[in-house]
Amino acid sequence: MNESQFWDDVDDYFTTHLAPEDDVLRAALRDSEAAGLPSIAVTAPQGKFLQLLAQIQGARTILELGTLGGYSTIWLARALPADGRLVSLEYDPKNAEVARRNLARAGLDKVVEIRVGAALDSLPLLADENPPPFDLVFIDADKANNPHYVEWALELTGAGSLIVVDNVVRGGRVADPDNPAPDVQGTRTALELIGRHPRLSGTAIQTVGSKGYDGFALARVLP
């Protein structure tokens, strides 16, 4: 058995006993695949991890950058109270339409608002609305713009808020300062911003699983 098969088997075991998917979550993945969306959604254990973070945080408001088919959105939105709010930003109108159907099936269409367009266009408009600080921000969009997303997350959060940046390992390429790829350079800049910013305390964790070799960064906003 090769290494990746071990990772898949362990993820399956974790999913079965710790993060079982219901019909709604399975349908979200099935319909996303049928619509031709890329198979890059978080795994069930990762979705449960995000949900637990939101619950531990006592989150009432969540901002997500990168909706895709709404799979991670469902996990996060289920952590919110009945009067909670989740705003998810998605670049691709096709992805957004699939996600809206998935969220409606989950009974979360009144909790989640999907805004379509480039996130760097949507974020200033969101800021202009002067919303209450978001309790948790999940960044899972184009990696080249990660530094800008972290800066906007700081703008839209308050002391004690959490910021999660997904896919920060880039297959190990993130450790190479000479790698010119925009996703690597954007991720490196975001991580270094988290490391030096006086209002952030953060770390990054490497992971393996059915999505391969990856990882995430977690930062807490300081007073």
In round numbers, the mean pLDDT is 97
User: How big is the Rg?
Assistant: 17 Å
User: What is the count of helical runs?
Assistant: 8
- Characterize the main sheet: 7 strands, mixed
| Topology order in helix (H) and strand (E) letters | HHHEHEHEHEHEHEE
Strand order of the largest sheet: 3-2-1-4-5-7-6
Task: Detail the poorly predicted runs.
Answer: none
In short:
This protein has 223 residues and is α/β, with parallel strands linked by helices. It has helices at 3-18, 23-34, 44-57, 71-77, 93-105, 119-128, 146-155, 182-196; strands at 61-65, 85-90, 112-116, 134-139, 157-166, 200-209, 212-221.
Protein described:
The protein has 223 residues and is of the alpha/beta class. The chain is 43% helix and 23% strand. It has 8 helices and 7 strands. The protein has helices spanning 3-18, 23-34, 44-57, 71-77, 93-105, 119-128, 146-155, 182-196, and strands spanning 61-65, 85-90, 112-116, 134-139, 157-166, 200-209, 212-221. It has a 7-stranded mixed β-sheet with strand order 3-2-1-4-5-7-6, with helices on both faces. The radius of gyration is 17 Å and the shape is globular. The mean pLDDT is 97.
Topology:
Layout: H1 3-18, H2 23-34, H3 44-57, E1 61-65, H4 71-77, E2 85-90, H5 93-105, E3 112-116, H6 119-128, E4 134-139, H7 146-155, E5 157-166, H8 182-196, E6 200-209, E7 212-221
Parallel strand pairs: 1-2, 1-4, 2-3, 4-5
Antiparallel strand pairs: 5-7, 6-7
Helix pairs in contact: 2-5, 3-4, 6-7, 7-8
